[in-house]
From TrEMBL:
Keyword DNA repair tagged: no
Subunit structure: Homodimer. Forms a membrane-associated complex with FtsX.
Protein name: Methionine import ATP-binding protein MetN
All residue ranges annotated as the ABC transporter domain in the record: 2-241
Gene field: metN
Keywords: Amino-acid transport, ATP-binding, Cell membrane, Membrane, Nucleotide-binding, Translocase, Transport
InterPro entries: AAA+_ATPase, ABC_transporter-like_ATP-bd, ABC_transporter-like_CS, ACT-like_dom_sf, MetN_ABC, MetN_ABC_transporter-like, NIL_domain, P-loop_NTPase
GO molecular function, one term: ATP binding
Pfam family, one: ABC_tran
Organism: Actinomadura rubrobrunea
One Gene Ontology CC term in the entry: plasma membrane
Entries under Gene3D superfamilies matching the protein: 3.30.70.260, P-loop containing nucleotide triphosphate hydrolases
Function of the protein: Part of the ABC transporter FtsEX involved in cellular division. Has ATPase activity.
Biological-process GO terms, alphabetical: amino acid transport
Amino acid sequence: MIQIEKLRKVYRARGREVTAVDGVDLTVREGEVFGVLGRSGAGKSTLLRCVNLLERPDEGRVRVDGRDLLELSGGELRRARQRIGMIHQHFGLLSSRTVAGNVAFPLEVMGVPRAERAARVAELLELVGLTEHADAYPAQISGGQKQRVGIARALAGRPKVLLSDEATSALDPETTASILELLRDLNRRLGLTILLITHEMDVVKRICDSAAVMRQGRVVESGPVRELLLRPGSELARGLFPLPEPVLRGDTTVVDVTFEGESADRPFVSTLARTYSIDVNILGGAVEDIGGTRIGRLRIELPGPPDVNAAQLAHLREAGLTVEVHGVAGDAAGAGDTATEEEAPVS
Ligand SMILES: Nc1ncnc2c1ncn2[C@@H]1O[C@H](COP(=O)(O)OP(=O)(O)OP(=O)(O)O)[C@@H](O)[C@H]1O
Ligand SMILES: [Mg+2]
């Protein structure tokens, strides 16, 4: 549904150049909720704004629903944009207009006749659960309700794609949950493809089918959320299971074991301990529900340095678990990094 290829955007201000997006490739499939996660300044908003050409990229391609936006003429681009809704952190409502008036605004711009407009506004307010607040002014409703107005307004042109720039960042956790629930519901009921950016792991966990992690203008990893979490060295997994950097003593092996679904139900720790007659120390861990699948990470400590635990590590891998060993040779990256040795197990 959205194809981004080799996208690059450089800002030039007062003789200084900032490469906000630095060669990004990304594919968002039709009907999925895709999350872009990254810290402040990573280039998330710039990337999103390039998808509807609010920002013109310096290089690369953006295709939405099969159309190359950079090749469209003014009128064509305006029409294409109506099929791409956008919502923002600070809602951007018109304070002098009622809830219904705000939702009607884009329809007026599109030249929808009055009678049809009224029916469409009613339909949109129903969709986001605001029918009873149609005549309220933005100052009279809560943040969550304001974002519902923002969503209704974004859906006015019956878009196939919704872009969301930190839509829940200004909301409390409970309201955030209800807005995410609404987005998920719209995604399913309308087949709406959603590309959202966020710096909150929780947003990715709750509603994203796929995700990308951005750092300094680049995508460092992307794919289905489940796959990313089970990929050795995954930043997304590190964000979801925030275990502190372990203290490595040299005479033990610290291992992060990531498991899902079935393998989560097998007692791999006690099996390991019994098979090799060793004491296994549990240092920490967490389990999350990702799209109905349980995915968890457990940090364990085995007696002896990594080289004497080769059989034990192979045993865990053979059980279908993702295994990451802390501090093995070759791990020069230091803090927060684990050796990714799926292809080349320690011998
Ligand atoms: N209009 C602009 N002019 C100059 N530099 C800009 C402009 N917009 C963004 N930048 C710079 O581009 C980089 C990426 O900014 P961007 O807003 O895309 O990041 P972000 O990931 O959305 O951050 P945040 O989470 O804080 O919203 C930053 O270094 C920022 O300072
Ligand atoms: Mg931003």
